[in-house]
Design a protein that fits this description.
The complex is a heterodimer of chains A (about 120) and B (about 120).
Chain A (H helix, E strand, L loop, with lengths): L3 E4 L2 E4 L5 E7 L5 E8 L3 E10 L2 E4 L7 E6 L2 E6 L8 E8 L11 E2 L3 E5 L1
Parallel strand pairs in A: 2-11
Antiparallel strand pairs in A: 1-3, 3-8, 4-5, 4-9, 5-6, 7-8, 9-10, 9-11
Chain B lengths: L2 E3 L4 E5 L4 E3 L2 E3 L6 E7 L6 E7 L7 E2 L2 E6 L4 E6 L8 E12 L2 E6 L3 E6 L1
Parallel strand pairs in B: 2-12
Antiparallel strand pairs in B: 1-4, 3-9, 5-6, 5-10, 7-8, 8-9, 10-11, 10-12
Classes of the chains: A mainly beta (about 120), B mainly beta (about 120).
Chain lengths: ~120, ~120
């Protein structure tokens, strides 16, 4: 079974709709991240959370919100989806107690979101 | 701001040959980490290799090795004995401290590698 799971894997929605992407992990990691991938731009950080009570904005947080329901769950919401939010979304986790202070991140399988 | 540049959007290599993917980065930090991630058609992001900036020795993982030139801010990936399964998008990534032990990853735009039979 995958250590980091994302639901749904694919989603098509319409402009103006509210949508939630969910991420769960069984790795026991305390840190979780949401990234967005666009063609030709690599991955960009949307939000990150270092524990249930600590949530921080990343590089491109406008139009998004997050909720850390538990250490193992981190969801990303689009309150009113717009077409330029069409992208591939990745959740990642890391362990603050990881070896060497590297804070290596482990990625989920991604959610492809299309906003029409 | 940190930037990561991958100047080769696409590359191809014959099976069993060697290929090198380029990556340069810009930073004023002295303590950081560098990574290469592989993204096959399955979309999964897979860590290929990592390098700590304070280590002069280049990292190696089986057929994958890096050429880390800290002064030149260059971090290239060499794939030896290329296999069809190496076909993927490859991302170079830079990790820097943001607060305490927290780290942030910045990715390049990727290089699509195709291994030809």
């Amino acid at each position: 079974d995958a250590d980091v799971t994302q639901t749904p894997r694919n989603r098509i929605t319409k402009t103006g709709k509210r949508i939630m992407l969910e991420c769960s992990q069984t790795k026991g990691h305390d840190r979780m991240y949401w990234y967005r991938q666009d063609p030709g731009l690599g991955l960009r950080l949307i939000y990150y959370s270092f524990d249930v009570k600590d949530i921080n904005k990343g590089e491109i947080s406008d139009g998004y919100s997050v909720s850390r329901q538990a250490q193992a769950k981190f969801s990303l919401s689009l309150e009113s989806a717009i077409p330029n939010q069409t992208a591939l979304y990745f959740c990642a986790t890391s362990d603050s107690k990881g070896t060497g202070g590297m804070d290596e991140q482990f990625f989920g399988p991604g959610t492809r979101l299309t906003v029409l | 701001a940190q930037t990561v540049t991958q100047s080769q959007p696409e590359m191809s290599v014959q099976e069993a040959e060697t290929v090198t993917l380029s990556c340069t980065y810009d930073t004023s930090e002295s303590n950081y980490y560098l990574f290469w991630y592989k993204q096959p058609p399955s979309r999964q992001m897979i860590l290929v290799i990592r390098q700590e900036a304070y280590k002069q020795q280049n990292a190696t993982e089986n057929r994958f090795s890096v050429n880390f030139q800290k002064a030149a801010k260059s971090f290239s990936l060499k794939i030896s004995d290329s296999q069809l399964g190496d076909t993927a998008m490859y991302f170079c990534a830079f990790m820097k401290p943001i607060s305490g032990s927290a780290r942030q990853l910045t990715f390049g735009s990727g290089t699509q590698l195709t291994v030809l039979p």
